[in-house]
Amino acid sequence: MEVAFLFPGQGSQEPGMLHDLTPGQGTEAVLREISGTLGFDVLSLDTAGALKSTIGVQLSLLASGVATARHLLSRSIRPSVVVGMSVGAFAAAVVADAISLSDATKLVRSRAEQMEGLYQAGYGMAAIIGLSESQISSIIEGVTTDSQPVFVSNLNAPRQIVVAGFVRAIEEVLARARALGARKTELLRVSVPSHCPLMESVAHSLDQQLQDMEVRDPKCIYISNIHARAVRTAKGVREDLANNIAHTVRWHEATEVAQQLGTQIYIEMPPGHVLSDLARDNLVGVAAHPVSSTNLEWLVAHVQH
């Protein structure tokens, strides 16, 4: 059975997530390498206080994703496809052996630091459930201005869409979405307007940093956030890692591409289960499982069988 590894993005974090990882030499090696690159213990980043910072969140997600995936690899579960949402793309690229863990750590730290410092107040993101991309784009056209911009940032499912930008503009978009029949609208606990042109300076910086790093052709198919296409070259991986922060994440289309490539089982790295829920709810005929300490052995036995 063809397997896809899914790597979550910001919003899935939870206190203690690194301390809950499956113990073993592989996990310890990942944590040790990341800590060595950072110059401090990465295990200090999964406290409730540290996870209030974009930096703590994104580095913890990188560590959790790579450590869990490498444990699965050690148990002979190998993906034919890797897909990472937003910062999860860096863990996906490491697992596909397109970039080293050390370089990914440097990039994620730089990315998070720049994101956190770019907009101090007044910006954010929100989720809208029950309207299509075209409906939300039409609403945005009537709301966005140069001084108070708002953009479509994540296409998580055909009718589960995230917007990003100036909070006052977002609130007007949500009000109009409710009037148009949206089932649910919610401001997210995110202070950074990710995946829109407001992050172009971060994308440019990451592109410059990647020019000085070795990026290789992935050993399995890497699916991009930006284009929702199968990527088989170092150039394609480099483009996606640099630029996904400033472009809409086409998540649903990415998972559809994985299915078209023959994926039957989607395995979501911890923490959380949002990505496996999305796959299960929106893709017909697939199995989707989040990895946790309670189901790991069952999952290994099930997938190997």
UniProtKB/TrEMBL annotation:
EC supergroup of this enzyme: transferase
Catalytic activity: holo-[ACP] + malonyl-CoA = malonyl-[ACP] + CoA
Catalytic activity, EC: 2.3.1.39
InterPro entries the UniProt entry points to: Ac_transferase_dom_sf (IPR001227), Acyl_transferase_dom (IPR014043), Acyl_Trfase/lysoPLipase (IPR016035), Mal-CoA-ACP_Trans/PKS_FabD (IPR050858), Malonate_deCOase_MdcHsu (IPR017554), Malonyl_CoA-ACP_transAc (IPR024925), Malonyl_transacylase_ACP-bd (IPR016036)
GO MF, one annotated term: [acyl-carrier-protein] S-malonyltransferase activity
Record-level GO BP terms: fatty acid biosynthetic process
Annotated catalytic residues: S86, H195
Gene3D superfamilies the record matches: Malonyl-CoA ACP transacylase, ACP-binding, Malonyl-Coenzyme A Acyl Carrier Protein, domain 2
Entry keyword Acyltransferase: yes
Key words of the record: Acyltransferase, Transferase
GO CC field: cytosol
The Malonyl-CoA:ACP transacylase (MAT) domain, residue ranges: 6-296
Family, similarity comment: Belongs to the fabD family.
Protein name: Malonyl CoA-acyl carrier protein transacylase
Organism: Edaphobacter modestus
Taxonomic lineage: Bacteria, Pseudomonadati, Acidobacteriota, Terriglobia, Terriglobales
